[in-house]
Amino acid sequence: MTAAALAFGLMSPAHAAPPPPATIRTLTATTAGPLTGxxxxxxxxxxxxxxxxxxxxxxxxAATQRQLFDRMLSEVSWLxxxxxxxxxxxxxxxxxxxxxxxxxxxxxxxxxxLFPLAKGGPRAHRPGRxxxxxxxxxxxxxxxxxxxxxxxxxxxxxxxxxxxxxxxGGGIGxxxxxxxxxxxxxxxxxxSEMRELMMLNGAVLVVIMIGLGGIAFLIRRxx
Length: 223
Known about the structure:
Blueprint: H1 2-16, H2 21-32, E1 46-51, E2 54-61, H3 66-74, E3 98-104, E4 107-115, E5 123-126, E6 129-130, E7 133-134, E8 138-141, H4 146-152, H5 183-222
Antiparallel strand pairs: 1-2, 1-3, 3-4, 4-5, 5-8, 6-7
């Protein structure tokens, strides 16, 4: 009897202690570290502009010329996944071509061709052959600000006063000089045009009054 009791006493603790799976799972999750999501796509770091009108390429760096870089990038970034808007114009209607290359850490990423002086408005071309592989070829209507964006970046283009821009820094190209627009001269021109319009309206009113008076006189004679 005594031996049986001792054997039962030795066996009971072994049955009373279940394995700790929860502790093991907790330690496994802790040592695995936090979950990480997908990495964000790399951002462009610089732009290169080339053309036949100038020998060396123009380089816009995102770190040192942020405003100028962002302005030029906005002219081409929307072309990446856009659906083509038009067919290829005739070559004699395109004018000079300027190639814009988007780089990521000095590696070409995207290439676009801009035609700011095309007849009928600026045009943009997305070549099918890209540095990262083959894509879809497409032609687009460019933004009206394309020429000014290229000009302030250093491309030798004539300024267009109808496309206004704020100050763009960066140490390259030519800034748009908004001081060329004289507000006093603009007000004087507006007042002069309003004066001419009022005089014209007055002359038309006088002619109408004379006509009505003549009609009234003829009616009175007949009566």
